[in-house]
Design goal:
The complex is a heterodimer of chains A (461) and B (685). Chain A has 461 residues and is α/β, with parallel strands linked by helices. Chain A has 15 helices and 14 strands. Chain B folds into five domains: 133 residues, no CATH class; 81 residues; 94 residues, no CATH class; 55 residues; 185 residues, no CATH class. Helices cover 46% and strands 2% of the residues of chain B. Chain B contains 32 helices and six strands. In chain B, the strands form three sheets. In chain B, strands 1-2 form a two-stranded antiparallel sheet. A two-stranded antiparallel sheet of chain B has the order 3-4. In chain B, helix 11 packs parallel to helix 13.
């Protein structure tokens, strides 16, 4: 029986391949779709998480703006020259969640967020309001008294680290995506390529106790040319083997030499696997608009998803980044550009997962150092705490706002000063939903503090 | 493992087999002996176990082949391989810097109880062997097989590796031939005048040696010119270290294409490198490039209940440039609250607000008397990248400014921005954190990633008071960093956690200095982009990704280093992509900068900007692999090449026929690239 089905499946596949090349000349999304047919025969129960980290602290104040007269006027009063015109905002109407109708004010998205708006309205994007690092549910009074707060609030490096480790009070050797990968490690069998793949450099969030993150470029893996047994080291094949030996084995007792050699060895091993796996996957495409550094990374993420079978991956975790959010100045202009990149990259990526037939198996989510103060400092905004985030994917119960939209009036119970938001949801709560969806059942292994929080209205997956 | 690393002479194996046939069960009492013969870890070194293991290892047997019949089945043979590998330098009994079958046979005969007069029977020693008689070797064993002591050349090369952009034969020779100590070398360097041309002259006035250098590229050219060719190497390396502490970067829209800004900023660091930290901190703060980069230029005083002063620089000047986040002991460890046992933050949000008010009412500097000077024009005075900011009193906050440690600037009845700035910077400068905070980071830039608390203490004390009891004397701090016993110790350098990863920029600078890489006249370094992580260094001067530098001083890569609570900052930019990029880069430049490539470039008329190495001295040694390796070992590894790496490089050299096409070039390039790609070079010790 399986033979017959396999046979038919293959014939259909070939037929469709021919149709695609004839009709489209091999469009990227079309080709990705064919790849997926090939993959679907072997892979089942596939899931991927994509962390989109906005480096520098996203200005949530201009990302989502309340549009009731009272709140909008207060927003303009606080922001002055860096406020957005009400008519330029993209209105959204969050649908009811399981606990009832959306109770907050009417909202508008930043005018650059056209792609996010359409994903939201189509139900593939959810907003998680006012989330950031917390040690426990915290009131303004507790904050004022310094009761059990994350270490070094408002500091870039520390808050990035706390977001990524999920442990805001203590040094940690691992991050919560890395720990989730540790739990799910057996899913990928003996794949030579790590479950945790980064296009944004070394990071804490993907550091596991057992999983070692792997770095990719926008084009895939990279090859040390001179160790190639085909080309040789300056044309000398025997010396290519000697070079490989020298760089893969430090031959030393020095810890740093050994670590360096280990990275080289990992690079050489994974490179050949990744190159082989990507060989059958179409390259970059116009669907991911050129000149958008985030889209360029997500293009490769889509290709690695398409190559999941060849990689032996049933679970994948990606880390991509976009910098330039630390907008103490030039906020209006620069933020529009950054958010435009985010919006078009997320939309293109979602469409790619649809074409691959894995839209419901891939969830992308944003994270950032912190939110920013509402009160302007001239032509920018300063470091804050809570901020709003976005989750995109076919499994997302989208078109809704989760958590609680804050009271944005200066001096409110949600304001710890200059419009810096006291988070109403913690990273733990946000991460717990993502980790559980990914397949983690014992949440405390991944998010040791998650049981301190009530998981109030966070069922976005 | 390669099967070709160690040359094996079969007659020695036969001799060994005969010895084994004698089946002597003699075990040597190892009372006062410390030679690492007991590689099996048994109760003592034994001929029938350790002698056999050494001989088999030297004849390239590994795994089961190494341990068969010697170790119990299931014994840990890989641990034995590691032990022998790590002790190969000391097991080099004949002193030819290789551990070979000769050494193994001598060890076996020694362990079997033979008289030293018979140890060398039938053995042909290599020409490089320094212990050529049984007596010499017996004396070496009696000393416990010490590591070869570093020569004066090696010591000079190691010091210059830490203190400069890389040793050259000339700088090594100068130190050795004049018996100059590191302290004397520093005295001479500290007295040198500023580099001529300055960055400003190169970039703004001359526009490079041909008058046509433009854009931000011209600052990159000037950076490399000074780094590679400047005789004021200590200042050059110090400026590079300071530029990683007080970061400005072209990866920022406000100063991305402003070559004047970056030339002026580097000159400011240069003129303060050997001055006082208080002045350095003030000039960093008031320099327009920093003020634009961290958005505090032209900050307006607050509007009560409305717009607040920008907190960007207020935060980073404390977090990154002076005191750091946590209160420190003088040894660099965190102070703990005696009641709660928790680390204590140095400042809070209110201190930042106070500092932000200090940083209001400053804008471009102007020269009194110049046209356009108008002290009341805060809105748009002329742009002056070459002048420190100046205050515009009407725009400075006169309200109370609460700073850290209870320092309060009272409300000013007459706006006094200079006084506010003085109090604020004095408060930071006099904070007890500065010595350990800045000192430990300078140690990490020059010497090692994980200094001992005692080392940090010594440097911090030098910061707190020089010989004349002056605080913040950078000369005293630099002396303390580079002359410290921990920095100079060769035994510490041999430790498992010693040293630091060389910054990629420094690796390339090392190469260019070692081989005098330059273009034909006029000398110009058109190195504009070395940033691509996949094919280049993944690190370019002036292009840190943010004010947090390429790496944080406390970064530790997850894994063995983090598990030991150690740090390795440069590993933050070291991953699968960048190690590949560097390996490709260094194999490329080692080849492209050789003589034959220069000829090719000349044929194509591309010679004037082409960066070529002068490897004539190395080419002259291409026919003598040992001498070639000796020279590269001194220049690149300050004489500490391991026997394994030496053997491999030698093998690779010999794999290239001298008479083959570009054979000599390829021998030199191969040896150079192998060493520079090796983990041993990448980690500076």
């Amino acid at each position: 029986m399986s033979n017959i089905n396999h046979h038919l499946g293959r014939r259909a596949f070939l037929k469709r391949s021919a149709a695609f090349s004839a009709l489209s000349g091999g469009s990227f999304l079309g080709n990705l779709a064919m790849m997926n047919d090939a993959a679907a025969q072997t892979a089942s129960d596939y899931k991927a998480l994509v962390c989109v980290f906005l480096l520098g602290g996203n200005d949530h104040g201009n990302t989502i703006v309340p549009t009731t007269t009272e709140l909008y006027d207060a927003y303009v009063a606080a922001r002055g020259g860096v406020s957005l015109a009400r008519t330029s905002l993209l209105p959204i109407t969050p649908s009811a969640t399981a606990i009832g109708a959306y109770p907050g004010p009417t909202l508008g998205l930043h005018p650059s967020f056209t792609g996010v708006k359409s994903l939201f309205e189509a139900g593939q994007c959810a907003i998680i309001a006012n989330v950031a690092t917390l040690m426990q549910p915290t009131t303004k009074t507790q904050y004022a008294n310094g009761v059990l707060l994350p270490a070094q609030l408002f500091s870039h490096s520390d808050q990035q680290n706390s977001w990524q480790t999920g442990l805001p009070d203590s040094p940690s050797a691992t991050g919560w995506l890395g720990r989730a990968a540790d739990v799910m490690l057996s899913q990928n069998g003996a794949s030579p390529v790590s479950m945790c793949m980064s296009l944004g450099g070394n990071n804490m969030i993907q550091a596991g106790a057992n999983v070692v993150q792997y770095q990719l470029t926008n084009q895939g893996s990279v090859q040390i040319k001179a160790v190639s047994p085909q080309d040789g080291f300056y044309g000398n094949v025997a010396n290519a083997a000697l070079l490989k030996q020298v760089i893969e084995e430090s031959g030393s007792n020095n810890l740093f030499e050994n670590e360096y050699a280990k990275i080289i060895k990992r690079s050489i091993t994974a490179d050949s696997a990744v190159r082989d796996a990507l060989a059958g996957v179409p390259g970059s495409t116009a669907a991911f608009v050129a000149g958008n550094p985030l889209a360029a990374q997500m293009n490769l993420v889509a290709r690695m998803i398409a190559a999941r079978s060849a990689l032996g991956h049933k679970r994948q975790i990606f880390y991509v980044t976009l910098g330039g959010f630390d907008l103490h100045s030039a906020l209006l202009n620069d933020h529009a550009g950054r958010l435009g990149f985010v919006s078009t990259a997320l939309e293109a990526f979602y469409n790619a997962t649809v074409a691959l037939g894995v839209a419901s198996d891939v969830t992308a989510f944003t994270a950032s150092d912190f939110g920013r103060a509402l009160l302007a400092n001239g032509d920018g905004s300063d470091h804050g705490w809570g901020g709003h985030h976005f989750v995109v994917g076919g499994a997302v119960k989208g078109g809704r706002l989760y958590g609680r939209y804050p009271d944005t009036l200066l001096g409110s119970a949600d304001d710890v000063g200059e419009g810096r938001l006291l988070p109403s949801a913690s990273v733990d709560e946000y991460a717990a939903v993502l980790a559980r969806w990914y397949g983690v059942t014992d949440l405390t292994a991944v998010l040791p503090h998650s049981n301190r929080f009530s998981n109030y209205n966070m069922a976005f997956l | 493992m390669s099967s070709q690393i160690y040359s094996v002479r079969t007659e020695h194996l036969i001799g060994l087999a005969l010895l084994m046939g004698a089946a002597l069960m003699l075990s040597i009492a190892a009372a006062q002996l410390a030679c690492p013969f007991n590689v099996s870890g048994g109760s003592g070194a034994r001929f029938t176990v350790d002698g056999v293991l050494l001989s088999r290892y030297a004849s390239t047997m590994r795994g089961a082949a190494l341990s068969n019949g010697v170790l119990p089945i299931g014994g840990d043979v890989s641990a034995i391989e590691t032990t022998i590998r790590d002790n190969a330098s000391r097991l080099d009994l004949d002193g030819d810097r290789l551990f070979t079958a000769n050494d193994a046979l001598i060890a076996a005969r020694y362990l079997a109880g033979y008289d030293s007069s018979r140890w060398l029977l039938g053995i042909t020693l290599s020409a490089q062997a320094t212990r050529r008689t049984g007596d010499d070797i017996r004396a070496y064993i009696a000393q416990g097989c010490p590591l070869p002591s570093a020569s004066a050349q090696d010591d000079a090369a190691r010091f210059l590796t830490q203190a400069t952009f890389g040793p050259t034969i000339a700088t090594i020779d100068t130190m050795v031939n004049t018996a100059q100590t590191p302290a004397q070398w520093m005295d001479a360097q500290l007295a040198l005048p500023l580099h001529d041309p300055s960055h400003w002259k190169y970039v703004v006035i001359d526009k490079g040696p041909r008058g046509n250098s433009r854009f931000i590229n011209s600052v990159m050219e000037s950076f490399w010119l000074q780094a590679v060719r400047g005789s004021d190497q200590l200042r050059q390396r110090t400026v590079f270290a300071l530029s990683q502490l007080f970061v400005v970067s072209t990866v920022n829209g406000a100063v991305d294409i402003q070559q004047d800004a970056h030339a002026s900023y580097l000159d400011m660091l240069s003129r303060n490198a050997f001055g006082n930290f208080r002045t350095l901190l003030e000039e960093v703060t008031l320099h327009p490039t920093m003020a634009v980069y961290l958005s505090w230029r032209q900050n307006e005083k607050e509007v009560p209940g409305g717009r607040q002063p920008d907190e960007n620089y207020a935060r980073e000047v404390m977090q990154l440039f002076s005191i750091g986040l946590w209160q420190l002991n003088i040894d660099g460890t965190r102070r703990l609250d005696p009641v709660t046992g928790q680390a204590i933050p140095t400042y809070g949000q209110n201190d930042i607000k106070g500092m932000a008010r200090v940083l209001t009412g400053w804008n471009w500097g102007q020269v009194v008397g110049e046209s356009g000077y108008d002290p009341d024009n805060f809105g748009s005075p002329p742009v002056r990248w070459d002048l420190l900011l100046q205050p515009y009193s009407a725009h400075h906050s006169t309200s109370e400014k609460r700073l850290l440690n209870g320092v309060v600037i009272a409300p000013q009845s007459v706006s006094n921005p200079r006084e506010s700035m003085k109090v604020a910077l004095d408060t930071l400068f006099n904070h007890p954190n500065v010595g350990p905070f800045i000192g430990s980071q300078l140690i990490k830039r020059f010497v090692m990633s994980n200094p001992s608390p005692e080392y940090v203490t010594r440097v911090a004390k030098a910061f707190n008071a020089n010989d004349s009891d002056v605080r913040g004397d950078m000369k005293a701090v630099l002396r303390a960093v580079l002359l410290d016993p921990d920095a100079r110790s060769n035994s510490i350098a041999a430790g498992a956690t010693a040293g630091k990863l060389r910054e990629p920029i420094v690796r390339y600078a090392n190469f260019m200095r070692a081989f005098d890489v330059k273009s034909q006249a006029p000398i110009i370094y058109t190195l504009w982009n070395l940033e691509d992580p996949a094919s280049s260094l993944g690190q370019n001067p002036l292009r840190s990704p943010s004010v947090f530098n390429w790496y944080r001083p406390d970064y530790a890569p997850p894994g063995a280093i983090l598990a030991q609570a150690l740090v390795a900052p440069e590993f933050q930019i070291t991953h699968e992509t960048t190690v590949t990029g560097y390996s490709n880069f260094i194999t490329d430049v080692a080849e492209r900068q050789t003589e034959s490539f220069r000829t090719i470039m000349a044929e194509y008329g591309l010679i004037d900007e082409y960066l070529a190495a002068d490897v004539s001295a190395e080419l002259a040694l291409a026919g003598d692999p040992d001498a070639l390796i000796d020279r590269l070992n001194l220049l690149l590894l300050h004489g500490r090449i391991t026997p394994l790496l030496r053997a491999t490089v030698k093998l690779a050299i010999n794999n290239i026929e001298m008479t083959s096409y570009r054979g000599r070039d390829k021998r030199v390039a191969t040896a150079t690239a192998l060493i520079m790609a090796s983990p041993q070079f990448v980690v500076q010790k």
